Amino acid sequence: MTGKNVKALKKLKKSYAWSGMLVTLFLSIVMVVTLAILTSAALQYVLESWISAEYDRISYMAHMYDSGMTEELKRLDREDRAYVVIDDDRMVYAYGKNTCSGIGHPIKVISDGGFLDIVVYHDTESQLFSIDEDTLTLDMGSFMPNILNPDMVIGINAPDTFKLPLWIGVKTVDGSIFAGRSTLDIDKNDLMFLGVVAGVLAGVFMLVFIFMLIRLILGIRNRRRLTKLVFGDEATGGNNWIYFRMKGEQILRRRSNARNHYAVLDIVFFKYRNYCVCHSVAEGEKQLATVRQVIEMWLGRGELSAHYASAHFVALVKADSNEKLQNRLNDLLGQLSCVDPAHNISFHIGVAYLDACSEHHNNASHDCPIDLERDYNNACAARATLDETDGSAIAYFTDEMVEEQIWEDRVRERQMTALLNEEFVVYYQPKYNPADDKLTGAEALIRWQSPEFGFVPPGRIIPIFEKNGFITEIDHYMIRHVARDQKRWYDTGYKCVPVSVNVSRAHFVEEDLAEQIRDIVDSEGAPHELIELELTESAFFDDKKALVSTINKLKSYGFAVSMDDFGSGYSSLNSLKDLPLDVLKLDADFFRGDSDVDRSEIVISETIRLAQALHMRTVAEGVEVKEQVDFLAQQGCDMIQGYYYAKPMPGNEFEQRMNAG
Ligand code: C2E
Ligand code: CA
Ligand code: CA
Questions:
Q1: 474: Cβ below 6 Å to ligand 1?
Q2: Cβ–Cβ under 8 Å, residues 635 and 600
Q3: CB neighbours (10 Å) of residue 205?
Q4: DSSP character for 596?
Q5: Which residue among 179, 200, 221 closes a domain?
Q6: How far is it, in rounded angstroms, from Cα 338 to Cα 291?
Q7: Are residues 605 and 499 in the same domain?
Q8: Averaged pLDDT, 261-281
Q9: Nearest to 241 by CA among 210, 262, 266
Q10: Which of 250, 443, 477, 481 is deepest in the core (most CB within 10 A)?
């Protein structure tokens, strides 16, 4: 996954809740504020229009008063007619019930496109208006309770109307104030209508709000699900690699971790596939989930783990001291081995220490870039060195492994071309009878004459071919070339001897292996008795029944079959019992090292006797000194393949040996 994708995922993880929440909150506030502004603007408009009209009316009355038309003034027959004339804060004239507060408040109202300065007075019986900075507003705090209890409204008895009284003052000619009472009539039905409209609007807003809230909740749930899909691991219920990379980078970049050293681990459930075959995939996944839990419980603060794939887990752990980490890993292996006590399961751990560069944690990160993919790959490379190791084990990544990896990749790239160009050469190592020093056989051993890499010994390529599966091609190639050489030598009239060819264990899974070999040898026309096949001990651990059947078939076609490297690694005495082999090759380890010579000789002589009793011929490999040759001859060993007699050699040199007998 690219860094770009990781960034995008980080964004997704961070932003999903807040953006939706903020948008919903913002829109809700906008809606409420808009509603409030519209309502108050409408009310203000009504109020100002009323005041403006009332001002005109009171001005007319003041004019009548100025003109001395007080009687006519009284006759302006209106129910709520009342006015007072105030002179220097003293009332000089009043008509009707005087409820004028007498304290004037200047206000400004819009009238005919301009502003009108008006002085208003509260009604002492009902203070339903408030005046603030030249602006008159309806005091909702006082008005609302009156709506709920109309009897409280001070005003004229009018069952369908709320009457809100206010006094408006106008200056008379003699300088006193003529204040007349005005009432703002609010029709209850209008109010109700307004209430209904406001209610409907509020309801609509509420619905919109609820809808948005539901959408937001659903959105968050969907994003959670998406996040789980992207970052979660289905098999174990834990985190996956994408999450590991993202979170791991965050941990490494954190300034507070600047002083910590870290290591990346590749933790593998060894032979997980076998476990699944023996039990079931579901059972296997159940165990993986338990493994995940064990690893997570084992982790310390600021450490991280995830399921990588199949049987692999990845972890980022603190590694301030090698010894401490080693102890912790041993502890982890101990805990993991208890995951299924009924079965002997084991785990391999590869460890890659991260570059100890504190620049990770400051701005100069490009000097020491974080690359968890590379680090995990290194941990895997270390763990891969344990592939053949049974039982739980730990391996640490070294720089040589990088070189090894590069070599492996180059071999892999060129192997096919090398095969097609016949760059692989067959070397023959003769086998001699120690009793009379006569040539009695040979082993075919591969060499690579590479135009690019020069002469490459098998130890540098065979393990790679075994790993990448190309070994079966090599086995075919070797059998074909040996058969071709044997046919040529046979036709030329040389005293041919059987030549053994190594067959890898990877080949033994193929049911028709014996037929394949027979067909190849036949296509070259070589006599079957001149070809022998060497199996390695480890091959015998797989399907024994199939193995016995293959060996029997090979023998029935006239090929000899030998067990290679007998005595190395695990004991295969049991295999000897079951497998109808012709030849037993004693491993070179018998003749090396500084083990007790007497004891070695007992083991060698008894092994030869055992082989003889089972009607098998014996070949001793890796024999370099005369004493060993003499001893083996004494014990009745049939053949010796070792530097004492000859090193592996090209075909033309071997021809000469054959001729020499
Ligand atoms: P191997 O099958 O056990 O072959 C014997 C190895 O021991 C050969 O190494 C041989 O040169 C070496 N050897 C024999 N006598 C002596 C001795 O007296 N002293 C010492 N120090 N070494 C001795 P080589 O040729 O390097 O092959 C190494 C291994 O590579 C072989 O071990 C075999 O496992 C594998 N190999 C070689 N050619 C082939 C092949 O064509 N196919 C397969 N599948 N494996 C091959
Ligand atoms: Ca061999
Ligand atoms: Ca061998």
A1: yes
A2: no
A3: 16
A4: -
A5: 200
A6: 10
A7: yes
A8: 92
A9: 266
A10: 443
Q: Chain-wide mean pLDDT for the chain?
A: 86
Q: Which residues contact 16 (CB under 8 A, 6 or more apart)?
A: 219, 220, 223, 224, 227
The answer on 282 and 366 residing in a single domain is: yes
Phi, psi (rounded to 5 degrees) for 67? -85, 5
Split at pLDDT 50, 70, 90, the class of 361 is: very low
Has residue 146 got a pLDDT over 70?
no
Which residue, 195, 129, 192, is CA-closest to 164?
Answer: 129
| Res. 203: pLDDT tops 90 | no
Which H helix or E strand runs over 212?
A: helix 188-231
Token couple for 110? 């819009």
A 10 A CB-CB count for 88 gives 8
| Amino acid 11: pLDDT | 61
CA of 537 to the centre of ligand 3 (A): 10
Our answer on whether the CB atom of 378 is closer than 6 Å to any ligand 1 atom is no
The residue from 331, 362, 397 where one domain ends is: 397
Tokens for 382, please give them: 């270390």
CA distance 226 to 460: 47
Closest Cα to atom 22 of ligand 1: 622
248 in ligand 1 pocket by Cβ < 6 Å?
Answer: no
293-304 pLDDT tens trace: 999 999 999 999
What is the pLDDT at residue 272? 92
Query: Which residue pairs from 489-496 have beta carbons closer than 8 angstroms and sit at least 24 positions apart in sequence?
Result: 489/655, 489/658, 490/526, 490/527, 490/530, 494/655, 494/658, 494/659, 495/439, 495/658, 495/659, 495/661, 496/530, 496/658
- Please report, for the chain, how many H helices and E strands are present, in that order: 18, 23
Strands 346-353 and 424-433: unpaired
126 within 8 A of 165, measured Cβ to Cβ: yes
Give strand pairing partners of 137.
130
| Domain span holding position 513 | 406-660
Say how many Å lie between the CA of residue 388 and the centre of ligand 2.
19
